[in-house]
Design brief:
mainly beta; Jelly Rolls; elongated; six-stranded antiparallel β-sheet; 2 domains; 16 strands; five-stranded antiparallel β-sheet
């Protein structure tokens, strides 16, 4: 059996092919290796597009006031209709992801609590997969900015819902000093 020649002109042998396959396997493994910090751009980034009043003590799930920042694979489904009141993201590929939710609250009195969260499968706090509560010091115009994030395996077909909660009446801002209230999903690598 003959094999195509390699660059130095000599014929390829089975050991040459085995070495080439091993090199390619190492290269693929390095490209898909999960590092300690996500280095990829978001798979999906959804932003709040208007300031929204928050009622005290009520979970406010993302509904119709959210728009696509980045979503090349069409994971986002906007809410706001009677058939689909809450926005969500549908996972297309089983893998490890970083789920991230940020909220920018203003008009919050001292010692009030503001929360950003995400839930798996249904808009229900009992399904939370990440949650970050922050208390207000009311010392400045930055407001309260919880940022919930967590890396985890998500399966194809999983639905991710996200939302915010405050212990007091306040406003969830679309942006503050150019930082958006947003939901982001980052791909970290294979399972």
């Amino acid at each position: 059996m003959t094999y195509p020649a390699i660059p130095d002109g000599r014929p390829r042998t089975p050991p040459d092919l085995a070495a080439e396959v091993a090199r390619l396997q190492r290269q693929v493994a390095e490209l898909t290796r999960r590092g300690p910090v996500p280095t990829l751009l978001p798979v999906c980034r959804i932003k709040l597009n208007v300031n929204v009043p928050m009622s005290a003590g009520i979970d406010m799930w993302a509904q119709g006031n959210w728009v696509v920042g980045e979503d090349p694979d069409g994971l986002f489904t906007a809410g706001g209709t009677s058939a689909n009141p809450n926005s969500f993201v549908r996972i297309q590929k089983t893998a490890r992801y970083l789920v991230s939710v940020t909220g920018l609250f203003s008009g919050v009195p001292v010692n009030a609590t503001c929360v950003a969260f995400a839930a798996l499968g249904a808009p229900n706090p009992n399904n939370s997969i990440t949650r970050d509560p922050r208390n207000s010091s009311n010392a400045g115009s930055d407001g309260v900015t919880p940022h919930a994030w967590r890396g985890r395996v998500l399966n194809a077909g999983d639905l991710i819902y996200w939302g915010h909660w405050a212990s007091t009446t306040c406003t969830l801002n679309a942006t503050s000093f150019t930082v958006p209230t947003e939901f982001s999903l980052y791909w970290l690598g294979p399972r």
